Amino acid sequence: MNIDTIEDLIGKVKIAPHPDNQSVIIHSIPDDFTLIGIGTDAVVVQHESQPTRVFKVYTENRIYKIENEYKVYQRLQPSPFFAQAFFRGDDYLCLSYEQGPTLYECLERGIIIPKQIVLEVEQARHYARTQGLNPRDIHLKNVLLQNGHAKVIDVSEYLMPGDDLRWSHLVQGYELFYDLIKGRKIPSWMMEWVKKAYYHQLDENFSVLEFVKRMQQMITFK
């Protein structure tokens, strides 16, 4: 199927932003597409005629992000740590299809996350900085475990200033806490509960060690 036909189908993807900055609200997606992922700005879909590619389709109020994200991908290529961007449309990006569970899904399924993955994400962040970028917004749903290696997805904030510390806090949590849950299946409701508690307590005095201790006490109590 040619790209013009696929673009017509992309135009029929109807999504809307969530008022609480949660995953987008999906109204309709043509049956020709398989839904691959959902984020706060976009959905990722795949057409059967393009098995090695996906289309990241943005909500109307986030279309302005496309150009910057495309520029980031261009600056990152080639790299084994990031997806590849082939081209952009008015409301979408065409990206390489990257297989593998996210780290979030690994925790859900009890799939072991080896230390090597953490080290490779650090390498990916270092590489991004050498390209004049600011790697941020890296979290459990933005890293894939792909054939034993890390693949970082969603680079939409790499031109923004500041360090949101999300990955740094995850690394500290991994080192402090992961051995206690390694190989166990963690229900999504528990991860969402911890995430909400994290955002509620996050301030300039935030301590990962103290947060982990509080979570251990509360989870044990529950």
Molecular structure report:
The chain has helices at about 5-10, 65-75, 105-110, 115-130, 165-180, 190-200, 210-220; strands at about 15, 25-30, 35-40, 40-45, 55-60, 85-90, 90-95, 145, 150. With about 220 residues, it is α+β, with helices and mostly antiparallel strands. It folds into two domains: about 5-95, Phosphorylase Kinase, domain 1 (2-Layer Sandwich); about 105-185, Transferase(Phosphotransferase), domain 1 (Orthogonal Bundle). The model has no long low-confidence stretch (mean pLDDT about 90).
What is the CATH homologous superfamily assignment of the largest domain?
A: Phosphorylase Kinase, domain 1
What is the fold named in CATH at topology level of the largest domain?
Phosphorylase Kinase, domain 1
Gyration radius over CA: 18 Å
* Average residue-wise pLDDT: 91
Helix content: 25-40%
Structure class: alpha+beta
In the sheet with the most strands, the strands line up as 3-4-5-7-6
By oligomeric state, this entry counts as single chain
Percent of sequence in beta strands: 15-25%
Low-confidence stretches: none
Mind summarizing the main beta sheet? 5 strands, antiparallel
Quick structural overview:
With 222 residues, the protein is of the alpha+beta class. The chain is 39% helix and 19% strand.
Task: Please render the helix and strand layout as text.
Elements (H helix, E strand, L loop, with lengths): L2 H8 L3 E3 L8 E4 L4 E6 L3 E6 L5 E6 L6 H12 L8 E4 L3 E5 L6 H7 L5 H16 L12 E4 L2 E4 L13 H16 L6 H14 L6 H14 L1
Antiparallel strand pairs: 1-2, 3-4, 4-5, 5-7, 6-7, 8-9
